[in-house]
Amino acid sequence: MDQFVVTTVLGLVLGAVYAIAASGLVLTYTTSGIFNFAHGAQAMLAAFLYWQFTVPWGLPTVVALLLVVGVIGPLIGMGLYQVLMKGLRDVDEVTKVIVTVSVLLGMVQLSIWVWEPAQPRKIELLGGNTNGIHVLDTLLRYGEILIVVAAVALAVGLRMLFTRTRLGVAMRGAVDDPDLLRLNGYNPQRVALTSWALGAALAAFAGVVVTPVIGGSIDAGTLTLLIIDAFAAAMFGRLRSIPRTFVGAMVLGLAATYMTKYAPTQYDWVSNLRGALPSIVLFIVLLVLPQDRLRGTSQQRSRERPRVPSVRQALVWAVVFVGLVFLLGKIANPVMIGPWVNAMAFAIVALSLVPLTGYAGEINLVPLSFSAVGIMVAFHLGIDGIGVDSRLSWVGILAGVAATAVVGGLVALPALRLRGLYLALATLSFGGVMYTLVLREINVRHWFGLDIALFPNARLIVPRPKIGPLDLDEDTTYLLALAVVFAVLGVLVVVLRNSGYGRRLVAMRDSPAATAMLGQRLVLLKLGVFMFSAAIAGLGGVLLASAQGSVSGDDFVITLSLVLVMLTVVGGVSYVSGALFGGVMVGVVLTSLAGTSGNLATTNPDLAPTFAFMAHLGGLAIALTGLGVRTNPTGVIHAISSAYRPLANARPVLYGGVVAEVVLVALDLTEVIGDWSFALLTLLVIFTLPAFAARLMPEAVLTAHEIEERERAKADTVERKGLAAPLTADERIELDAALGLSMGERTHAGV
Amino acid sequence: MPGSDALLQVDGVTVRFGGTTAVDDVRLALQPGAITGLIGPNGAGKTTLFNVITGMQRPTAGQVVFDGTDITRRGPAARAHLGIARTFQRLELFLSLTVRDNVRVAGDIMKARRRGSFDVDGETDRLLELTGLTAIADREVSDIPTGRARVVEVARALMTHPRLLLLDEPASGQTEQETEEFADMLRGLAESGLGICLVEHDLPLVMGLCSTIHVLDQGRVISSGTPDEVRASPEVVAAYIGAEATS
Question: Are strands A132-135 and A138-141 parallel, antiparallel or unpaired?
């Protein structure tokens, strides 16, 4: 009995931590309409800062706590809102998600940079790890009491704030009706700013206390994913109700503690299951949540829309693309092929996002976790032969693809009745379950009459495929095969977009209400596209595993998926080429960033710190590219193609570029210039083409409007006088005449 | 009382949001082949009533009966299948699509449901012609003026071959000439048997088109009848037209 009481108390303490984290999330979401995926990352930064202040710098606990929770935390929150989130009120869900995901990734990069992950760091519980009062022979530490008291006070306080005070009521109205709020004398921006400051302080507090409560040392990954625990709790209150969120947090805390205490210890999966518990609870909550009411959308009519290629154009591009990859295989140094093989496989995984996110506007944050499903099934069902002679069979690939589609449907189904954000959260939870539970199923178990380990020895060896007589073992062949698969799927996706099905997907994204009113059952449509998307991710995953030769659980960490999703959206998630962009960035750029700086540091030990600095800076820069979707939601590819589109009218310039490129290929093949020079010169040719066109054939590439602007800049019209040089006396007279001012008035107006 | 031959019956429908009652025990009937007007000041509950009829809003109390079937608990898509279509006061166009594709996608949905027996392209052309949109069919729907955009919503709704069409302020943003053509089109549609319910602030248009008018104020039906009866009703003069006359 005493044991039970003690366990319960510990559960309440853990629940209190969740409650604090979740309340902050609810607070910022209700007042700004932005779900802050970086909430856990903020907690993580706070934990590291607290460690920095208390351990190496030896500041007193109280000072460190005040600095982290009272000053730095709120400043980060306010900074985030003021600089990044403010303009996001009316943008689509994908943009909102990607911006906060980018902040999350940036913060993780920053923490790795400043606090070398290999070093263990422990922080003490507030009030010390050993001080406290004895209850029923068990030490109840002061810090634990403080956490519970703080959580209760917070829940009561926030509840009162929301229901009893004018500011609180104003906060709740900030999302639903900012105009009404303004009429009542509140500035919705300031209300949201306040809540972001408060929310960030709560994240910081949760970050400082969570590590000593769970035990162990500060871990950037674990703390960042505190976001999953937080939103699982917040989901009890539909991300809005503070009291229900509090209850949800306590349920999670108690369940986790009871499970650790009472679940039979002979099963090694219990501790993994505990880690996956919030995700599992989230799915249950999603199942029982009532259906969302269809609401109208606040439509922005002026936004730039992605272009839709015709099937013909897609076919041409597909052929050109395969040709280019064939050339790449011929030209590139064999060492360079490996990253490109990975890139192509990543690109196929990223392609799964084009129909789902690009067309239908739904979000899957963890495509690689779905890939893992496909890989496991292919591994168990599809490997023929042993050792170096083993090959992946088409049966394995197909089984993997089919299994991923089915799992995708099952994961998505509970969330499909709800708003897009919930699907994003459900996928993130699925990523958590895969990483903490399924991919750690490394021991043989007895499942339904079969003795099988899902992820044997923590590493799956996946050989290259062999389809009939076609053996894809060799790198260059495999690269070309992947390019063909990508091209074929790319064309298929474009065909889909141009079909009635594709139009229905786009219609659903643009206006779910109108689509439903035309007789479309939204759940069916979403389910279909999610399963299709998961199938592509499964295929990409199997091909990726086969590209790398083997995969371990850490290849499916959630942050890698987030990077891939973010970079695909940065590239342009409505474009097949956006997926290619995402794949190349992850497969080639990120990998070589780490690899190259490591190699350079080994060869030039003196400069090692510089190279490490460059690598960290590069990583951070890439993590933050997601912030760009705020101003350019259609993506880089769209922007680039807009710049190159007019070149079609300047054929001579285009031909000149092709000739230059042919010369470069010839020079490279005859080894007059090296691969690197070739790559750089190629980029130079590509980047300067629009500039050449604008200079040599302005009438062909510039719009009438741009030419007019140029003309006006040249001609000295009255309006432009005084801009480049000060006005002369004659010009003043001319201006005054044009404005209808007499000399007298002008002198009055002075200067 | 609503007759039994009514296409749609709204029976004692009440909608409460927290403390406020947006629609209060409303009873009315819509007939096939007739244009019914629904007027009232802003916030009277007209759009909420549309949302209840189309399934976007569950009523707190009351029933919606379509062609003898109680549809109160059915979703929007199921009601569309039965033959209810609507347009939106705050436009709900598919902004990534052209005018033609906005209409065509409604046909795509029909075709997917009927497993193929639907000539999407032919129907699209016919409706674009009927609504006078052929000339701007290939423009991006985000680029066209609001008045035309409202007609796109009507064409899109007609694509579902509805038996009842609910129009939420379709004439706002239309020029005078466009409104006249629009009124003629509605008369034609009603003659072919379509039941139409019109929420509109353009009173001359409503008075000229509708055979029956219901006046809503603060969620209640305060008057029902022919345009002449409604115009003469003292409650209406007080609550609605009176307010306009003094301004």
Answer: antiparallel
Three-state SS at A491:
helix
Q: Which residues of A touch B108 (CB under 8 A)?
A: 500-501, 503-504
Say whether residue A296 is in contact with chain B using an 8 A CB cutoff. Answer: yes
Using one digit for the tens of pLDDT, what is the confidence trace for A461-486? 999 998 888 888 889 999 999 999 99
CB atoms within 10 A of CB A298: 8
Range among A58-62, A514-518, A553-557, A690-694 with highest mean pLDDT value: A514-518
Pick from A517, A524, A529 the residue to mutate for testing the B interface (most B CBs within 10 Å): A517
> Could you tell me if A10 and A274 are in contact, meaning their C-beta atoms sit under 8 angstroms apart?
no
At residue B2, the pLDDT reads 46
Q: Concatenated DSSP letters for A518-570?
A: TT--HHHHHHHHHHHHHHHHHHHHHHHHHHHSEEEGGGG-HHHHHHHHHHHHH
What is the least distance, in Å, from the CA of B247 to any CA of chain A?
23
The 3-class SS string of A493-505 reads HHHHHCCHHHHHH
Amino acid at B25: D
> A500, B111: Cβ pair inside 8 Å?
yes
Q: Do B93 and A516 touch (CB under 8 A)?
A: no
Of A656 and A545, the structure prediction assigns the larger pLDDT to A545
pLDDT of residue A266: 65
Burial tier of A416 (Cβ tally within 10 Å: 0-12, 13-18, 19+): buried
Residues of chain A in contact with residue B154, where contact means CB-CB under 8 angstroms, are: none
What CA–CA distance (Å, rounded) separates B66 from A234? Answer: 40
- Whether the full predicted model's pTM is greater than 0.90, yes or no, is no
pLDDT > 90? residue A168: no
Q: Per DSSP, what are the bridge partners of residue B39?
A: B215
Taking the Cβ of residue A206 and every Cβ of chain B, the question of whether any pair is shorter than 8 Å is answered with no
What percent of chain A stands above pLDDT 90? Answer: 45
CA distance A390 to A572: 38
Ranges in chain B, pLDDT < 70 = 1-4, 116, 240-247
Phi-psi region of A740 (alpha: psi -120 to 50; beta: other; left: phi over 0): left
Mean pLDDT is lowest, of A521-535, A637-651, A659-673, B20-34, for: A637-651
Chain A residue with Cα closest to B96: A305
Task: Say yes or no: ipTM exceeds 0.90.
Answer: yes
Mean pLDDT of A525-533: 97
A contacts of B77 (beta carbons < 8 Å): 516-517, 519-522
- How far, in Å, CA of B128 to CA of A619, rounded? 53
